[in-house]
């Protein structure tokens, strides 16, 4: 399973928002919370299952 954490860019693979680019706000074992700044803000993130999201850019590791 791909490691998903806050700050990574991700693309929606399923749903009415397919192919929309998001920033991961929070992640747990089953879900990620996503925001894009236009339709979904950080105050009202979209909850999506991890399997419906593809990471497209990883954060820099230290």
UniProtKB/TrEMBL annotation:
Query: What species is this protein from?
Result: Hominiventricola filiformis
Q: Which InterPro entries match?
A: Ribosomal_eL14_KOW, Translation_prot_SH3-like_sf
Q: Provide the alphabetized UniProt keywords.
A: Ribonucleoprotein, Ribosomal protein
Task: Identify this protein by name.
Answer: KOW domain-containing RNA-binding protein
Its transmembrane ranges are none
Read off the SUPFAM superfamilies from this record: Translation proteins SH3-like domain (SSF50104)
A single cellular component GO annotation? ribosome
Its domain of life reads Bacteria
Sequence segments annotated as region (Disordered): 43-62
Comp. bias regions, Basic residues: 46-55
């Amino acid at each position: 399973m791909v490691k998903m954490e806050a700050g990574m860019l991700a693309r929606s693979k399923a749903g009415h928002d397919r192919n929309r680019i998001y920033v991961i706000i929070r992640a747990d074992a089953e879900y990620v919370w996503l925001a894009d700044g236009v339709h979904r803000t950080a105050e009202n993130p979209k909850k999506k299952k991890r399997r419906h999201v593809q990471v497209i850019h990883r954060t820099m590791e230290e």
